Amino acid sequence: MPVAASAIYFLNLRGDVLINRLYRDDVGGNMVDAFRMHIMQTKELGTCPVRQIGGCSFFYMRISNVYIVIVVSSNANVACAFKFVVEAVALFKSYFGGAFDEDAIRNNFVLIYELLDEIMDFGYPQNLSPEILKLYITQEGVRSPFSSKQSLDKPVPNATLQVTGAVGWRREGLAYKKNEVFLDIVESVNLLMSSKGSVLRCDVTGKILMKCFLSGMPDLKLGLNDKIGLEKESQLKNRPTKSGKTIELDDVTFHQCVNLTRFNSEKTVSFVPPDGEFELMKYRITEGVNLPFRVLPTIKELGRTRMEVNVKVKSVFGAKMFALGVVIKIPVPKQTAKTSFQVTSGRAKYNASIDCLVWKIRKFPGQTEPTLSAEIELISTIAEKKSWTRPPIQMEFQVPMFTASGLRVRFLKVWEKSGYNTVEWVRYITKAGSYEVRC
Amino acid sequence: MAPPAQSSRNPSPSQPSGKGEVSDLRSQLRQLAGSRAPGVDDAKRELFKKVISYMTVGIDVSSLFGEMVMCSVTPDIVLKKMCYLYVGNYAKVNPDLALLTINFLQRDCKDQDPMIRGLALRSLSSLRVANLVEYLVGPLGSGLKDNNAYVRTVAVMGALKLYHISASTCLDADFPAVLKLLMLNDSESQVVANCLSALQEIWNSESSTSEEAAREKEGLISKPFIYYLLNRLREFNEWGQCLVLELVAKYVPSYTNENFDIMNLLEDRLQHANGAVVLATIKVFLQLTLSMADVHQEVYERIKAPLLTLVSSGSPEQSYAVLSHLHLLVMRAPYIFASDYKHFYCQYNEPSYVKKLKLEMLTAVANENNTYEIVTELCEYAANVDVAIARESIRAVGKIALQQYDVNAIVDRLLQFLEMEKDYVTAEALVLVKDLLRKYPQWSHDCIAVVGNISSKNVQEPKAKAALIWMLGEYAQDMDDAPYILESLVENWEEDAPEVHLHLLTAIMKCFFRRPPETQKALGMALAAGLSDFHQDVHDRALFYYRLLQYDVSSAERVVNPPKQAVSVFADTQSNEIKDRIFDEFNSLSIVYQKPSYMFTDKDHRGPFEFSDEIGNLTVGAESEHVVPATSVDANETSDLLLSTSEKEETRAMVADGSDYTAPFYDSSNPALPLQSEPAITGLLGAADPGPQASTAIDDLLMGLDLTAPPAPASAPPPLKLNARAALDAGSFQKKWRELPVAMSQECELGSQGAAALTSPQALLHHMQANSIQCIASGGQSPNFKFFFFAQKADEPSVFLVECKINTSTTKAQLNIKAEDQSTSHEFLALFQSALSRPEAAIMALAAAWRRVSSSATGVATQSLPDCFRFKQRSFCSSATAVASADTLLAKLLQLSTSQIKRALDSVVAGRSSDLAVSESLVASLASSSPQKAKLILEWRLERMLNDGEKDRSLYSNLISLCAKIRNVPLAMTMFTSMEDRGIQATASVFNSLIHTCLSSNEVITALSLFEVMESSETFRPDSETYDTFISGFSNFRDTHRMRAWYQAKREAAYLPNALNYESLISCCVKVNDFDSADLFYNEMMAQGIAPSEKILDSVLEGLCKRRNCERVKEFVNFLMECRFEISGRLIEKVVKLYCELEKPDEMEMLLDALVEFNQVGEALLQVHCGIIRLYASLDRLDDVEYTVGRMMSQGMSFSSPGDVERVISAYFRQEAYDRLDLFLEHVTRYCKLTRSTYDLLVAGYRRAGLTEKVDSVVKDMESSGALAC
């Protein structure tokens, strides 16, 4: 059995129960106490998200200021359990409008109980699709499509079919005046660079987010400039591949709406989209990544009480583009007493709570290289040994209209029986994942 | 459902707890129940919400059951749901009330709205009340046939719930068959998925009893059914797919290409967005190709990319789950992942559980192509802030080194680690270097050069220390000061862990065979310390080495120093079978725990969860914090294995069990060596020929090394002169103490440094001795010591007697002085205080010298001590008297060569009366260091007696038993014969002494033949003492069998057993863990009305503690108190330790109450107080800690050791309760001084918490308190 969860608890950081739902009787009621006593009150918290206490296993995740704990008594499927929690949280978020924290739970606990009853029965996950659940779990309550009070002349979509249904992600009979599709390619660049400037590790995880406001049951087809897709296309159409960059995707996963069989045979992404917002696909690329920024740090420790920091950041994307919200965090020792800076662009500040110099540049044009030079005075303490473990420099940024992988949308086609016209919006954005440069 | 205790104890403002609210709710509910006014539903909703929120936080609102049910007659679906939830929660505890709900639930089950039908059916089946199942069958049956799919999905689960409440009802209603039908025919995938879950559960548990169920269970993985599911797979939602794929993984294909067909069909699932589906698919792939090696490899290649994607996306918890699986695959096929090593690089902010797995994978995938990069990366982590990860990464480097890739580069790195000067880095690196050397001895030259520079003082962790010691022993010839480092380690014996002791013993043995003259002293000290160690293994090993040396030095060398071969393969931790089992359980918890499921779900399905038996096994990170514990068990395992294999060669012959002495190398004569024979160790070494270099003048060597005690610095001459050679025997001391009134009574300050220097009472004794104040008895345990001193005026026989109680934690000394000459008592007090207040330098210098003497003199003066002190004396060496009186002579004798001894004795000892005492103490002190001199003294004494024509048998008898000290049976025989030659008739007591000597010297056969002689004679038939000698002798050998035989013999000879016999019997039985016999003897003794000695009580208690029998320990202690025994600290310490291990604070509280009730005071009470605090601290129960500390303080007691204070501080740090910590510190510093290590802990804790101001203030405090200086 994938997961037969015996109980689910929502706890706040103090260990108070916000929500408890016992699905099965094979665990006792003192599970929360066990969790509090053996995980929360010890150093165990954060050392491992899966723990065995007594005959039971606890899976726990912290989401904002809430712990979600699943208790199982058998040899359960861990990946499935965590995925379930993540999906459930996404579902709750879509109900409360974004936030998922202690207050949101306290304000909506009745709704959460309702949802917990629907998404899991006797420990087995049922349907977690927000689109479907929203049809019949509402706080308005009386809006049940089957309620005898409802007028019968208005055609109601067959919700229970979709509660369980085959096309779980889309209901029929949708109608929009303006048929629009928004498509965002969002890439996050993960980088680990050595202090000497060599790339130790670099990869891009990208996702394609879609927002569809389309009538009826449209069939969509997406073309990218990825290698396999292009090759297959040229094979099928019997013409040579167009020149231009082709991207090799290491791995792709798709939303359940994508017809995987067709992807495997024709290498095209075709799907019937859910209504509203969803994540169409995720991909990962390790080869040929264009790093948007290079960081060149020099840190000199001058004696025991002084340090000199020079950081040069170079933007290597097109001169017409610019990055937004660039933050460079340069670590300094804990015993920093005084700092003074000079920056050629943006603003820098010493943030003692994270032991970092935080250098912010709101708008960072391409092909420029601002620098920061700082002098740092340290308190000399007796006990502190000279070695300071230098954490890496971390960077945050967003570069619109730039993809580190070079991925581009070649086409997005929409077919629908009624043959309406659609408006398509495509955006690209590259963000920093974990962008670390050792110094 | 039990309300969560904690939340009801500390209600937060939003969580009311009162009963008032409940009754309020009740009246409001009643008002609304019948009302049909508009807006009433909204009011009801608010009320229901309140009720449910109370229910959630654990307030019992079950009393509202009736009202809730009444209110639930409503068309409002939200209200209904809330009501269902409420009913579902309380029905189980209120089965009678639940009956009320049946009616409306059943009605709702027939509602025209399928939504309501489903909800009602779910609630109905969730009531979990066994006697209501009859009402469930009907609605379930119609639910399963409902034309709405939603109702059917609910009904299927309902059937499963019914099965769990009452299996027979479910089976009788034939629900499994209905479910099967649904599963095969229903158009709805969710119905099918639920049927599958339900049937799997039902048939799984039925299959053990019913053949039909077993057949059905098999049917689930039959070809037609699997194909049916696979064809419908895409209809299922993600969770349903997981379920189906899990089942498919169990399917065994029937023809060759079938697995390819299935894999082709499923390949697209690897692209699924849900990681759980991807993992389930991977499992199918792996299982299908298990028998086809090459395809299996291809599968690895295929699944690599999706797995790596899953790792890098999602929350850390999800990637942890995936990483665990990837870890398993990497371990199975490292080479496939070798080129992807960069994926396993750690990011700075990743949680440590992720980092740990990644480190292990980096280790596994290292090969000749990537080692350099990986090791470079790992070295970066060694500087990581997270100490646990830093340690892991160093270990990882070591493991890679042992996989023998590019060792060159790695050795360089390792040596760099050693230069990083971080304790934990050094520690880990040392362990590593050791393992490395075992595999690549050729590197020894480079490594030893660096290791030699490491001061053993900077290495604290036992494992690292053990590694360092191993290298010192193994490469003794290459490291110049190896023997001296080892010696200094032996001197600090008490500071180290048993693990270190074991290695120290072995290393010193090895060193001894390579550099005998230099190591001789260290070896003697180590063996003596080992023999008196409380740890069983340490003791046994020391004894083993000792006997080995005694037997034959060259065979000892063969055993300890065999030609070693480099270790080529280190043992694997898990068997292949277990690994395969884990692999079979892919995609489950087994992978995360890295053990097959039967290992952790054995107690599965045992019904409601019980904690009681588990809690004891769960440690809560109690150890003191300043050394961050190495967290990973797995990583430690390898090095453990290394250590243990390293010992194997040496310990092959050594069977740990003390009773099995007849190992082949041993003499055929019965093994016998009493434990009190430490004094003879060095003598033995002298006699043994350790090798060609050492053959010359071992005696001189000994003299030069062992006992050149540095001259005590003379104190400033006070007006009062004391006789440096004052002598007073215990009897007269006792007499005088009773007669004299207390002349002076004063409390004085000891000076913090002095107290700190007073690491052991011996040091003080020796210091006082240098000031001509002799100790006659001492006792107590840190921090409270008690001493009895005496001194004599230089020019007249008038003596001073002092009782001195010292508390090292408060650094105060309480003095009671009695003087024969009252007029000078003031001067004496001044003198005494001045001596007491500046012992530091003298003590430092003397401590070392003392240890040498004390180790040799243990146990000598036991008999001569005054009775009133006997209770206390055992806690540490008490031979001070003898040493004191003979001190000067001893020093003199040591400087003389052997030939001059007799003449010197002649000149010194003129009078007859004192010389026996003198020779006795001299022999005792000399026995260990210079047995030859001791022998000479005895010979001299014999000559004198013969010359004087001594006729007193008892003197001869005494002399003979002194031979036991140096284990010289021939000398004893000579004495015996010369006595008989003088025409002095032998008596039983003389024979007894002879037997005692024989037994002490391991000559059991001789002892037995002596006994036969006695039996056949007329005049000296064996008396009760003879039997006693045998009993205690065999008890010392731990030979229970013979001991009991002799005990039986004594009884048959019509002698009554005495307390001493029982002492031997019981302590021996307890030592060999024969508790039943110990109990038997104890009961027998009590039945005979013999009062137990403290040692017996001690042994009995130890036995009970070893058995961890809490109840009986409690009974026993209560019994002791009821009988008005004084409970010693040592006794209670055992109990406290046991309770702490078992984590029983309540028991301790009871113990404390009992102690107070019976007016027990002092040490014992303090021990219990500290024990309770320790336990609460380790459980992080800060409130309790504070209460108990306050209670202890209010009774005028203070922490006995800084360790306890540190434990409490650590608990505060763990809880991050810094304000409370401040309060605590303020409180504690009022009563006792903090030590350096405590300050260190505080600094480390605050620094970790990032409280720099606190760190500064602690450092300031530390400086001002002077703790920094020492």
UniProtKB/TrEMBL annotation, chain A:
It is a peripheral membrane protein. It comes from the Eukaryota. InterPro entries: Adaptor_comp_med_subunit, AP2_Mu_C_sf, AP2_Mu_N, Clathrin_mu, Clathrin_mu_CS, Longin-like_dom_sf, MHD, Mu2_C. Its main location: membrane. One of its GO terms (biological process) is intracellular protein transport. GO terms for cellular component: clathrin adaptor complex; clathrin-coated pit; plasma membrane. Pfam families: Adap_comp_sub (PF00928). Coiled coil: none annotated. It is found in: Cell membrane; Membrane, Coated pit. CDD domains: AP-2_Mu2_Cterm, AP2_Mu_N. Residues 178-438 form the MHD domain. Keywords: Cell membrane, Coated pit, Endocytosis, Membrane, Protein transport, Transport. Belongs to the adaptor complexes medium subunit family. This is MHD domain-containing protein. It comes from Linum trigynum.
UniProtKB/TrEMBL annotation, chain B:
It comes from the Eukaryota. Residues 1-17 have a biased composition (Low complexity). Residues 1-27 are annotated as: Disordered. InterPro entries: AP_beta, ARM-like, ARM-type_fold, B-adaptin_app_sub_C, Clathrin/coatomer_adapt-like_N, PPR_rpt, PROP1-like_PPR_dom, TBP_dom_sf. SUPFAM superfamilies: ARM repeat. PPR repeats lie at residues 952-986, 1058-1092, 1235-1269. Residues 720-837 form the Beta-adaptin appendage C-terminal subdomain domain. It is found in: Endomembrane system. PROSITE patterns: PPR (PS51375). It holds the Pfam family PPR_long. The keyword rRNA-binding does not apply. Its main location: membrane. GO terms for cellular component: clathrin adaptor complex; endomembrane system. The keyword Membrane applies. Coiled coil: none annotated. Keywords: Membrane, Protein transport, Repeat, Transport. GO terms for biological process: intracellular protein transport; vesicle-mediated transport. PANTHER family: ADAPTOR COMPLEX SUBUNIT BETA FAMILY MEMBER. Belongs to the adaptor complexes large subunit family. This is Beta-adaptin appendage C-terminal subdomain domain-containing protein. It comes from Linum trigynum.
